[in-house]
Amino acid sequence: MHQPARRPRTHGFDITLALVAVALVAASLLGSRDRGPRGPQPSALSGTLVVADLRGHGLLVHDLATSTVRRIALPGGPHELLPLPDGRVAVSLEQAGTLALVDLETLAVDYLDTGGLPHGLLLDGNALLVTDRAASAIRRFELGSWRELEALPTGALPHQLAMSGRDLLVADASSAEFRLGLGRVAWQPAVTESLAVSADGSRVAIAGARDGLVRILEVASGEGQDVPLGARPVRVAFAPHDADLAVALSASGEVALVGPEGRVDRIEIGGVPDGLAFANDGATLFASDIAGGPVSVIDVRTSRVVAHLDGGATPGALLYLPALPAHR
Q1: Which among 46, 140, 152, 276 is most buried, taking Cβ atoms within 10 Å?
Q2: Which of 133, 61, 47, 68 has its CA nearest to residue 91?
Q3: Beta strand 68-73 pairing with 118-124
Q4: What is the rounded CA–CA span in Å between residue 243 and residue 87?
Q5: Other beta carbons less than 10 A from residue 1's beta carbon
Q6: Which domains can be identified in the chain, with CATH numbers?
Q7: Residues contacting residue 116 through CB under 8 Å, at least 6 positions apart
Q8: pLDDT in tens, 119-178
Q9: DSSP code per residue over 99-151
């Protein structure tokens, strides 16, 4: 594994930062419909929330049980986060052409210099898959040895990845077709950069930022349900129990909760919503404001913001871990 002593170089144009710079946020107070008994308060939460501070070039690691936070500096802006089997977290530093492998317990960081524009991350057996817009491909690296394997060709602008069974799902912002594994396609809204798969793998949600649509596809049949939300949806996340789908609406300062039969509750968090992560019981949702606001803690059962956490300079992607990695 390459561990450069120098600061990794910078490549390309940062789409996420450009979107933050031009986003127009319409702030409007919207009521929240009561959805049942109140969920757990922040003091009752446990586990770890990792926040990718894009312009702050670092990670914020929140111990939710003790309400303490640690900061891990990185030599570039972190985009996506993925837990690894060895307990570390992989972080894509797109503009630095590098992956960071972060030990949240010791705060040690190793680097894998990939070149290109690494962004979306996914585990596939013994391989780490990484989207690379510079190569219009999915790069593959063997876990442990970090030897690069044969790449998988894809569309021009691959952004995020997910897996349903053995079907590889790719959010490609350049295409009007969403690929459901090999040989099957479905229509997708423009511009699709984000996707999420339900816990049982049967459904995939894709966010069309330009069209203002979220499309929920049945993976087996390819049939879809369109949920028109407007307000530039940029990220989606299924709750662990799959009853709710969270959507970050970057142009309205809201997070939408899409429930059964297409019911939509809108929760104002302000700024430019981006990262989303559910706690493992599904009762709490974390949402970041990439315009520099805090991370909002949302009670899913009441659709209300109940607390805020430090997000750093520009909090983007979020990762919730039920517990800190065990000492190795």
Answers
A1: 276
A2: 61
A3: unpaired
A4: 29
A5: 12
A6: 35-321 (2.130.10.10)
A7: 11, 97, 132, 133, 134, 135, 139
A8: 999 999 999 999 999 999 999 999 999 999 999 988 888 999 999 988 899 988 888 888
A9: EEEE-TTT--EEEEE--S-EEEEEEETTEEEEEETTTTEEEEEETTT--EEEE
Yes or no: say if 295 and 318 are a contact pair by the CB < 8 Å rule.
Answer: yes
Looking at residue 86, its pLDDT comes to 95
pLDDT tens for 214-231 read 999 999 888 989 999 999
Q: Each residue of 237-274: pLDDT tens digit?
A: 999 987 899 999 999 999 999 997 778 999 999 999 99
Take residue 252 and report the two structure tokens written for it. 């309205």
Question: Which tokens hold the place of 130?
Answer: 């990484």
| Residue 38 to residue 69: CA distance in whole angstroms | 26
d(CA 7, CA 12): 16
Tell me the C-alpha to C-alpha distance, in Å, between residue 209 and each of 232, 236, 248: 4, 11, 10
Note the pTM of the prediction, 2 decimals. 0.85
Distance CA 248, CA 288 (A): 9
3 state SS of 212: coil
Helix (H) or strand (E) holding 97: none
Residues 6+ apart with CB under 8 A from 84: 90, 101, 123, 128, 143
Residue 274: C-alpha distances to residues 19, 106, 123, 245 (Å): 11, 28, 23, 14
Q: pLDDT, tens digit, for every residue of 165-187? A: 888 999 888 888 888 877 788 88
Question: Region 61-70: what's the mean pLDDT?
Answer: 95
